């Protein structure tokens, strides 16, 4: 049920680690970016990650609310079935 959320969280972690590694250890021959540009990129990445985590939590809450709604319907259906069984006895 929560597999999409887990996959998304793992993807975010991978992207975060990959970006952090590239900033700390640029490939051989790559030009080092000025500190200002690195700071700007890091801030943009942090903002994007924050927004993504916010979306993930909103999605988790929506899934939780949906599951609660389904449980309520299940209880109602079980009640109807129980009453029907007693009615036919």
Give your account of this protein's structure:
There is one protein chain. With 89 residues, the chain is mostly helical. The protein is 85% helix and 0% strand. It has helices at residues 3-24, 35-88. α1 (3-24) packs antiparallel against α2. The radius of gyration is 24 Å and the shape is rod-shaped. The mean pLDDT is 78.
SSE layout:
Layout: H1 3-24, H2 35-88
Helix pairs in contact: 1-2
**Secondary structure category:** mainly alpha
- How large, in whole angstroms, is the Cα Rg? 24 Å
Low-pLDDT residue spans: none
| Amount of helix | over 70%
Largest sheet: none
Cα(first) to Cα(last) distance is 38 Å
Shape: rod-shaped
Mean pLDDT: 78
Residue share in β-strands: under 5%
Order of helices and strands: HH
Number of strands: 0
Number of helices: 2
